[in-house]
Amino acid sequence: MGELRAFLTTHRARAPYRDPMERRQDYSEILGQVPESDLAAQGARCMDCGIPFCHNGCPLGNLIPDFNDLVYRGDWREASDALHATNNFPELTGRICPAPCEAACVLDINDDPVTIKQIELQIAERAFAEGWVVANPPSVQARTGRSVGVIGSGPAGLAAAAELNRAGHRVVVYERDEGVGGLMRFGVPDPKLDKAVIDRRAEVMAQEGVEFRCGVDVGVDVDPAELRGRHDALVVAMGAREGRDVGLAGRELRGVRMAMDYLYQRNRAVARMLGRPAPPAPSGAEEITAAGKRVVVIGGGDTGMDCMANAVREQAVDVTILDVYPELDPVTGRDARHPWPLQPKRTLSTYALEEGGVRRWGTQVTELVGDRDGAVTGVRGRAVTGTSSADLEPVPGSEFEHPADLVLLAVGFTGVERDGLLARLPLRLDRRGVIADRAYCTSEAGVFVAGDARMGASLIVHAIAEGRRCARVVDAHLSNRRAHTDDREQAGADGPEASDPAESSDDPALDTAL
Fold first, then answer.
1. Do the beta carbons of residue 99 and residue 115 sit within 8 Å?
2. Which of 74, 105, 144, 493 holds its CA 20 to 30 A away from the CA of 232?
3. How far apart are CA 59 and CA 54, in angstroms?
């Protein structure tokens, strides 16, 4: 703790976002950096809590008070080491993580929290600028001779790949789309995350020995059984991309589309604009565009806000988000279900709302209406009260109709996609629609699962933590197998196979890993 009273005398600085009216005209990143002296002052606000709840708020357990103090003291190299000790990709979380650590900051009880996310981002960028982030491949002697296939290159798959490669295993990442990153590349708009940031980290991983094979849809282009024969273990990190649909009258109308389909198209359109690899633009009925249209987004989470930001940049006539959540307390910025230190599900404002969108709180859509040609023309709804979709009560006399030429459904996800991989690799699913597991081990021997595919759609920081933990389990499994193989070879005869962790929860190696 650098300054004993800094949390009393220094106020939180606003994040250095570009002017909303300027940035809505382009696809450049919206978040900048602050001078080092200002950032040091922000680091000094960290108050040396007896119990730093930010640790609990961060799924990675980042050493937050440590790197805050190191930035205050100007020890940037040590700050980078402390940050990378727990987080493989701080340059990504520093941009797109909603910062549950800040929601859990003790200062947030009655003041503004420490600017942890901005400090994290600038440590990561300083590390790249200074050349501290360099490839550090395992030595030839450290290579284990074991091979792991990772299916999916989102944050969980990338984290698992990085950790397993560091442990000495040969790692091949299979990605069905044209570039690595998963929804970081195809769901998150460029203004929030320049895709060159993903490519920069992937290049470091490639130099360390991780092999990326893009455009390979496992279950379609290659049989999972072939991969199981090719690798000693598989990690399924395919995400949970099955969007939740709505059972509303008028759902079949033209112009009612899933939000993620729109975001995929827009991210690829920007990629083509910037000269990055991308498939040809869709045409006709397949194209989803907000240009010149009245847009309604159903659902007010991050996906809905990203749709709004893209629609504004396409020069939609207007963009409205309809959200069933009740309006937040204007002082605390929280709802009753998410007191400190929990992460709020909504915020008082967002980057997208600042750029020109409108949000209507406590609103439930009841019907989609259209014209004689089958095109959507509007939505009907009503005001509701309640704390969630499970206890909504309509407000009498509040019915309304809102015009719309494009309606985007952004009401969450229902689990993993069932076609492709899971059509050929019969992994057991649980009632949430994700892959069932016991300590990251699936129902198939030697096949592991991590990230959204295991826990449901969540935050990037959860996904990275998942990938790291899963890697420890896989490494323990492979080390256990290697030890048994060595014992058999020394004995000169075949012995009993090592118990597979997918069939037993009593594997001591897994207990140690977890």
1. no
2. 493
3. 10
pLDDT of residue 483: 52
CA distance 479 to 498: 11
486 vs 2, residue with greater confidence:
2
State phi, psi for 204 to the nearest 5 degrees.
Answer: -60, -45
Q: How far, in Å, are 58, 114, 458 from residue 100 at the CA level?
A: 6, 12, 12
Place of tokens 């992937």: 202
pLDDT over 80 (residue 501): no
* Among the listed residues 329, 341, 338, 459, the one whose alpha carbon sits nearest the alpha carbon of residue 103: 341
More confident residue, 148 or 507: 148
d(CA 172, CA 149): 5
CB 58 within 8 A of CB 461: yes
Angle at 41 between CA 38 and CA 43, to 5 degrees: 115
Alpha helix stretches (DSSP H) within 370-459: 421-424, 452-455
Q: Which H helix or E strand runs over 149?
A: strand 147-151
Q: Are 297 and 408 in contact (CB under 8 A)?
A: yes
Would you call 140 helix, strand, or coil by DSSP?
Answer: helix
CA distance 386 to 391: 5
Q: Is the pLDDT of residue 91 over 80?
A: yes
Question: What is the Cα–Cα distance from 178 to 217, expressed in whole angstroms?
Answer: 10
Going from the N-terminus, what domains does the chain have, and what CATH number goes with each? 6-129 (1.10.1060.10), 140-241+415-513 (3.50.50.60), 245-258+276-411 (3.50.50.60)
Report the 10 Å Cβ neighbour count for 73.
14
What does R_g of the chain's alpha carbons equal in angstroms? Answer: 24
Phi-psi region of 190 (alpha: psi -120 to 50; beta: other; left: phi over 0): alpha
CA 512 – CA 500 distance, rounded (Å): 15
d(Cα 174, Cα 150) in Å, to the nearest integer?
Answer: 6
Q: Give the C-alpha separation, 60 to 89, whole Å.
A: 11
Residue 215 is encoded by which pair of tokens? 């455009």
Q: Are 126 and 153 in contact (CB under 8 A)?
A: no
Q: What is the C-alpha to C-alpha distance for residues 229 and 293, in angstroms, rounded to an integer? A: 51
Three-class SS state of 382: strand
> How far, in Å, CA of 408 to CA of 297, rounded?
5
* Distance separating alpha carbons of residues 24 and 22, to the nearest angstrom: 6
Global pTM exceeds 0.90: yes
Q: In this structure, is the dihedral angle defined by the CA atoms of residues 76, 81, 85 and 90, taken in order, positive or negative?
A: positive
pLDDT digits (tens, 9 = 90+) for 180-196: 999 999 999 999 999 99
Question: Pairing state of beta strands 147-151 and 170-175?
Answer: parallel
Q: Which whole-number Å values give the CA distances from 16 to 65, 104, 115, 234, 314, in the listed order?
A: 22, 22, 11, 42, 24
